[in-house]
Amino acid sequence: MINNKNILITGGTGSFGSIFVEYLLKNFNPKKIMIFSRDEQKQFLMEKKLEKYRNKLRFFVGDVRDLHRLEFATKDVDILIHAAAMKHVLIAEYNPFEVVKTNIIGAQNVIDSCLKNNVKKIIALSTDKASSPVNIYGASKLTSDKLFIAANNYAGKNK
């Protein structure tokens, strides 16, 4: 399922993304893995660390808040792993609309760009904090989850 596929990982330099990229490279044979992240320093370090896989990796500096950049990045993608999110509860409480822009509007941008470019599969990461949210982070991830579930309904015959 992963072998010979083009995979895009939003938040690809984050805590989950960076470990998952290594896991994919060591255990599967993807055609290409695209790392989508707004942190160019982490991309630089990741590229150096994974030098022997250079021919399999592509790095996109971008933010899920930027629909146009996502539309560009999702061209020819088979599988998208959506791991980008603002995750720190205390930071989220002090910056609630930044969380909305990343975790909710960013999720909708991922959905829209995938539908536009016929991405076959999206896997969106969630959190236990979305099950009974008591803070802005949990509420934003619950909303994101609901957006992805709803997207299954309006994708129509698209995968």
Q: Which residue ranges are poorly predicted, with pLDDT under 50 across at least 5 consecutive positions? A: none
Q: Nearest-angstrom radius of gyration?
A: 15 Å
Q: How many helical elements?
A: 6
Q: What is the distance, rounded to the nearest whole angstrom, between the alpha carbons of the first and last residues?
A: 15 Å
Helix content: 40-55%
Q: What amount of the residues lies in strands?
A: 15-25%
Biggest sheet architecture: 5 strands, parallel
For the largest beta sheet, what order do the strands appear in spatially? 3-2-1-4-5
State the order of secondary-structure elements, H for helix, E for strand: EHEHEHEHHEH
**General shape:** globular
Number of strand elements:
5
Mean pLDDT: 95
- Protein structure class: alpha/beta
Keywords for this entry:
single chain, 159 residues, alpha/beta, five-stranded parallel β-sheet
Provide a quick synopsis of the model.
With 159 residues, the protein is of the alpha/beta class. The protein is 48% helix and 15% strand.
Explain how this protein is built.
Helix content is 48%, strand content 15%. It is α/β, with parallel strands linked by helices and 159 residues long. Strands 3-2-1-4-5 form a 5-stranded parallel β-sheet, with helices on both faces. The two termini are 15 Å apart. The mean pLDDT is 95.
